[in-house]
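Consider this record:
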Amino acid sequence: MKRLKIEIRLFATFREGRFKKDVWELPEGTKVIDVLNRLGIKPEEIAILLVNGLDAEPDHVLKDGDYISLFPPVGGG
């Protein structure tokens, strides 16, 4: 089975206990939700989900060379 190289970029609190940026090799047909499950991040915890800088949904099927950016809700005031 073909493998994909995907870059994952985490922001703000998503970096806690994880990483800032990492590259994973994943099987062809992998969706964003599969990456979220592996990271232990629920879709409802995400404020902004981008694939290659464009808005995406958790069911987006990834392609080789894609990069995912995940942003939690930003608190403050």
Summary: Strands lie at 3-10, 21-27, 48-51, 54-55, 67-71.
